[in-house]
Amino acid sequence: RNQLSILNVPVDVITMNEAIQRVQDLYSEPGLHTVVTVNAEMVMRARHDKELHDILKQADLAVPDGAGVLWAAEQLGQHIPERVAGCDLAVALLQKAAQHKTPVYFLGAGPGVAEQAVKNMEAKVGPLEVVGIHSGFFDDQEEKNIIQAIEAGQTKLVLVALGVPKQEKWITEKLSHLDGVVAIGVGGSFDVMAG
Ligand code: UDP
């Protein structure tokens, strides 16, 4: 794994195609696999948020999401070939998921947004194996139902759009018991897909 470190946050030196391939490989490896999309905001936040920092350090894949990360790498005398923007990665993974009938759960964003995002994505990549969809605003009972649905649906990919750092913490706190599952915090991606 070719990584560099920006203010102690690891970033994989990886292209979009390599990131997509890595996620396909992770689906068949035991345990929960976390993918983080590193940008300047996240690096700065991690300096005073130890929980987030630990999550970033333990991620199975840390893609260079922000232009600031590429710039910081250059300042360190290193080179990242291209940006791997979280939203673009999510779209590319959904394209693969449509091809391979990979079960996907969509969690996050305001009421109706994730539903519209799925509709728009299906128009783009074809039918998806949708395990479930839930907005990013839920109570404890709804949260239990969400986790049960993810467990019961043979889910391979969980897209979590709750914003940074809530999504990263939620994934680690609530999904760590899962096996052969990839979870990604995708920030405002559902809003973009739905728009
Ligand atoms: N959000 C959510 N639940 C919350 C807080 C936020 O679902 O409790 C959603 C919000 O509706 C938006 C996304 O999380 O769709 C955060 O988007 P933003 O662009 O702020 O992401 P970030 O910049 O944090 O990656």
Structure overview:
There is one protein chain. The protein has one domain. The protein contains nine helices and eight strands. The chain has helices spanning 16-26, 40-46, 50-58, 67-75, 86-100, 113-125, 140-152, 166-175, 189-194; strands at residues 3-6, 9-12, 32-38, 61-64, 103-108, 129-134, 157-161, 181-185. Strand 1 (3-6) and strand 2 (9-12) form a beta hairpin. By secondary structure, it is an alpha/beta fold. The strands form two sheets. It has a six-stranded parallel beta sheet with strand order 4-3-8-7-5-6, sandwiched between helices. The chain has a two-stranded antiparallel sheet with strand order 1-2. The structure holds uridine-5'-diphosphate (UDP). Uridine-5'-diphosphate is lined by residues 108-110, 136-137, 161-164, 166, 187-188, 190-191. The site of uridine-5'-diphosphate has 14 residues, from helix 9.
Brief account:
The chain has 195 residues and is of the alpha/beta class. The chain has helices at residues 16-26, 40-46, 50-58, 67-75, 86-100, 113-125, 140-152, 166-175, 189-194; strands at 3-6, 9-12, 32-38, 61-64, 103-108, 129-134, 157-161, 181-185.
**Helix/sheet category:** alpha/beta
Strand content: 15-25%
**Biggest sheet statistics:** 6 strands, parallel
Q: Order of strands across the biggest sheet?
A: 4-3-8-7-5-6
**Small ligands present:** uridine-5'-diphosphate
- Poorly predicted spans: none
Instruction: Classify the helix fraction into a percent range.
Output: 40-55%
The total beta strand count reads: 8
* Count of distinct structural domains: 1
* SSE string, helices as H and strands as E: EEHEHHEHHEHEHEHEH
**How many H/I helices?**
9
Q: Termini, distance in Å? A: 36 Å
Shape call: globular
Radius of gyration: 16 Å
If you average the pLDDT, what whole number results?
98
